[in-house]
Amino acid sequence: GTSADQDTRFSDKEKKLLKQMKFSESLNAKVDMNKVKLDTIKPWIGKRITELLGMEDDVVEEFVNNQLEADTWPDPRKMQINLTGFLNGKNARVFMTDLWELLLSAQESPSGIPPKFIEQKKEELKKKMEDQERVGDMIKKFEKDKEDREKERKKDRERRKSRSRSHTRDRRSRSRDRHRDKRDKEKERDKYKDHDSDKVREKHTKRDSRSKSKGKLVSNGHSSPTKTKKEKSRSCSPKNDVRKSEEKTNLKNS
């Protein structure tokens, strides 16, 4: 234990620090810890100490929690003095100012929770709901896009089938047209052949009829009234002319 002299020296030193140190005005107000839900504030205490020290410190965090749980009406100034050795004077003052304002607001809240935390929680829930809605919208959009792509693929398949059927019909139609044209050409060719055959037969018939008529004239003792080309050529030849001239001369001399 400590002697009365030591307690007096500690008390005197504490009083001296209380006069020398700077404290926030909010520390003048008292907090009834029975009206505060400390469990909702403990996460903030650990986070704030880590921010001020630049690292986690479970010892300091546990020290602060013990100070708040040890007394129904904790003394914030003594807490700041005790934290100075851990956080230094400036950080201890900043930390206690923030902590005490939270405790005062929690004390005034019917729920015992700082309204700031309630608003933050609402924002978190709102953001979470928005994220869920956004995810839901993304899923719906993905499903819709998937359905649209499936419909488009189905339409493409139908168009390809339709083009294939149309191409087949066109090919068959062209084939029929080619066959029809071929038949028409063959018919036209056969028609010309028949016409030429008729002409040839007609020519042969005329020639045969002329031959028959000549034969009849010869058999009846009549000469052909017309001379052949060969006879005409002989009658018109120079030898015949000379012979005729000689015959005329002989007749005159006689």
UniProtKB/TrEMBL annotation:
Keywords: mRNA processing, mRNA splicing. GO terms for cellular component: spliceosomal complex. Residues 127-254 are annotated as: Disordered. InterPro entries: PWI_dom, PWI_dom_sf, Ser/Arg_repetitive_matrix. It comes from the Eukaryota. Pfam families: PWI. The keyword ATP-binding does not apply. Residues 20-120 form the PWI domain. Residues 156-182, 202-215 have a biased composition (Basic residues). GO terms for molecular function: RNA binding. SUPFAM superfamilies: PWI domain. Residues 127-155, 183-201, 240-254 have a biased composition (Basic and acidic residues). GO terms for biological process: mRNA processing; regulation of mRNA splicing, via spliceosome; RNA splicing. The keyword Aminoacyl-tRNA synthetase does not apply. This is Serine/arginine repetitive matrix protein 1. The lineage of its organism: Eukaryota, Metazoa, Ecdysozoa, Arthropoda, Hexapoda.
